[in-house]
Amino acid sequence: MKYFQDPTVPDRDKRKKVYYWEDKQKHLNFILRLQVDGLKQGQFLRAIVDGYMNDDADLLAYMEKYKEKWTVQGINKRGTVKRLRKQAALEKEKFSLGETEIESIFDLIEKETGL
Questions:
Q1: Does 63 fall in a domain?
Q2: Which residues of the chain have pLDDT under 70?
Q3: Are 81 and 73 in contact (CB under 8 A)?
Q4: At what angle do helices 57-69 and 41-53 cross, to 10 degrees?
Q5: Quick check: pTM over 0.85?
Q6: 80 inside domain
Q7: How far apart are the first and last CA of the chain?
Q8: Which of 9, 31, 67, 97 has the greatest CB tally within 10 Å of its CB?
């Protein structure tokens, strides 16, 4: 009998375990909040890592507040990182196609080929 497997878990040969130490009370509160939201620890952490790696604007805004509150980075370094992220987004926008452009290309192909 095959048991339900979480689709967000990477294959056995491609995964790496990630963990950190936390206060007991904070961990308990975390587990309770996850239960309310219907999430497992792994699902939550994979979602956060995914948002971070994909430059989710909301998550990055939170990280800015966190770094400022806990002085994780100096003001100059935070400014540099913010400027570089903005520059990268502009370059990405400059060279990549959006949904509208892609649809236009398919429309042109359809008109030219009659497909």
A1: no
A2: 1-4, 97-98, 114-115
A3: yes
A4: 100
A5: no
A6: yes
A7: 46
A8: 67
C-alpha pair distances (Å), 93 with each of 15, 76, 87, 89, 101: 31, 26, 10, 6, 12
Residue pointed to by tokens 């959006």: 98
Task: Give me 82's structure tokens.
Answer: 């913010």
Distance of CA 31 to the CA centre of its chain: 21
Closest residue by Cα to residue 72 from 60, 63, 80: 63
List the domain range (segments joined by +) for residue 112.
70-115
Angle at 32 between CA 27 and CA 34, to 5 degrees: 95
Q: Is residue 94 part of a domain?
A: yes
The DSSP-derived string for 64-98 is HHHHHHTT-S-HHHHHHHHHHHHHHHHHHHHHS--
Q: Is residue 112 part of a domain?
A: yes
The angle that helices 24-37 and 41-53 make with each other, rounded to 10 degrees, is 90
Q: What is the C-alpha radius of gyration for the chain, rounded to an integer number of angstroms?
A: 21
